[in-house]
Amino acid sequence: MNTLMEMIDDLIHEADVAALPEWNGIPLGRPTFTYRHPDELDAGWDRWIALHGHFNSINASHMWHRSYTNKHRQLGDHTIDQFDIDLRCAAGAHQEHRATLGLGTICSCVGNCLTQLICSTCSWHHIGTENECVEAWHDHAFPGWRSLPVLPAKLRGQMGTTKLTPQLEDWFDTNYPANMRVPGAPIITERGPYGTRHVPGYSPFGGYDLSAPQEGNPE
After folding, report:
1. Is the pLDDT of residue 183 over 70?
2. What pTM does this model have?
């Protein structure tokens, strides 16, 4: 039974929802896969939260939301915004269907967890895993990055400093072309079989430190 305070909270929420302006933005409560400006995705997420609250919002909404690990950035002549989406069933949904319908496992998942990177400067986007999106974005913003020499792990120092030390500066001046030594440019670092995430902001130039496997280790 609801307490008096819970009933008051519900009435306040209903009043807040009734006062919201008419919605003409992106569809709510389902994923969109066509290009949308980051402002549109932010507005859609905010509208969902205003209607339904924060609790279980990521899973229940099946909508794009800002990544917690990568904020809006300007890298070179391009922008980058990262959004994530969870397309899986709610926890326990399968068991609930089995118990109430007696039909065995029923899966209503529309997918898995996905990432989207957006360059709003160019109305460009890519959807996939995080690493796939990062690589596609660099194809878009820094073509030719795939042919860059790999920085040896012993020079990188286990993802330590992001500063351009004299030793690193000498190595990059020798091995990287001038157009890959500009603000926002990435580097490629030798890595082991683990810890292979492409890390934003860890390039000495302010861009990504992109993962490359160590020689002899599996991809």
Report:
1. yes
2. 0.81
